[in-house]
From TrEMBL, chains A, B:
Full protein name: tRNA pseudouridine synthase A
Classification via HAMAP family: TruA
Source organism per UniProt: Croceicoccus esteveae
UniProt xrefs under NCBIfam families: hisT_truA
Gene of this entry: truA
Molecular function terms from GO: tRNA pseudouridine(38-40) synthase activity
Residues the record marks as active site: D52 (nucleophile)
Pfam families in the record: PseudoU_synth_1
Amino acid sequence: MTRFALTLEFDGTPFMGLQRQKHGPSVQQAIETAAAAITQEDVRMQAAGRTDAGVHAIAMRAHIDVEKPLSAFQMMEALNARLRPQPIAVIGCQIVADAWHARFSCIERRYLYRICNRRAPLALSAGRAWQVAPPLDEEQMQAAAQILIGTHDFTTFRSVHCQSQSPVKSLSLLQVERSGEDIMIHAAARSFLHHQVRSMVGCVALVGMGRWTIDDLGAALAARNRQRLGLNAPAHGLYFKEAVYAVAG
Amino acid sequence: MTRFALTLEFDGTPFMGLQRQKHGPSVQQAIETAAAAITQEDVRMQAAGRTDAGVHAIAMRAHIDVEKPLSAFQMMEALNARLRPQPIAVIGCQIVADAWHARFSCIERRYLYRICNRRAPLALSAGRAWQVAPPLDEEQMQAAAQILIGTHDFTTFRSVHCQSQSPVKSLSLLQVERSGEDIMIHAAARSFLHHQVRSMVGCVALVGMGRWTIDDLGAALAARNRQRLGLNAPAHGLYFKEAVYAVAG
């Protein structure tokens, strides 16, 4: 048995999410179907994160276990050939030790959220960023984001469908940067609750619009109540950017 | 009569090109149809450049003349509302003097060509860059590009469908820059021949692959013969980036 660590880029638009779903296409199904066709084996994929419908990946990490003897290069080429024309690309492939696990060995997940802060609709970046028309104050957003850093009960920022055992998570980074009309929000944590990044971004954007104060955000966090969520940012602005491992993949 | 100067962003994928065509949708048709619906007038659009099918625009400049009294803001909002869901956005709109002409007042056109130099297919940038698998030497490409700068007969780099009276053009910039797997090629000239940017990019890429020497490129230019063109780069990597005017639009 050989374990292949994969790095995946995908456009989340046509998928119901990363994880296999009964009611529509998923990234997991696409990879497993391609790998099964290559190997004639029943292949299961494990991934670092479970992204929602419409969420993109710049570099999702995953692994598959295969009996058929193939080099990492052969596997990458064969997967990419089988995945066409679906918008998933295997941009990295390595053979790793069996102890390496894409999900359980991952010690940090990093996301990027892209807001396009302009009045005009998006043409080139349609489906790739959240268009926000009111002018956003990125300095206020950055100041607001800092109160979410650290270990908190993030119930307010958690989907009702979240399967995590605890709502307590440790947020290590939430950085807001403007570049022209783009506002990039970088988030990092060991793990996130379902919808946590989108919910934090939505509320930080409310502060940027002047509709919430930083104290309003603090009160929403302290309330530990999903009813106090101000806004959940749309999926299509979110990118899974990086998975960090203590041992090389 | 009021002249509105427009700045347009568009995804060229679904269009037969900027200019109105009998056999399919165009950016010009979309703008004229939207403007006619707003004003009940027969509106014609003039644009700084005539981009091909599949070519994108970051900031194309154009103008329309309208009798109906509207502010620049009202025109921009109304056009964007009517253009949905087509991937065209009016990202700027100003009222300008009648002497200002989007095409004839333009003194320089600037294009960007994006190559994604990697073996894996493109997922997030599909249709937005030219994927080139062989490793490209961007320093050789930059050196090659410099021999095209200046005033030359660019017949080799000209489409047989080109309507320009003369094949002689003055290329002021052809700059090759790498950022990770992206190679960005910036081109500027008062005007270009049909397919000139794509043809220059294709041949410069051949040098980057090591299939052509810089001397081969020079010989192809000197031949003034379309048969000597090495490669025409695909439309979907090309972006109309900027139109420069001596007087403000």
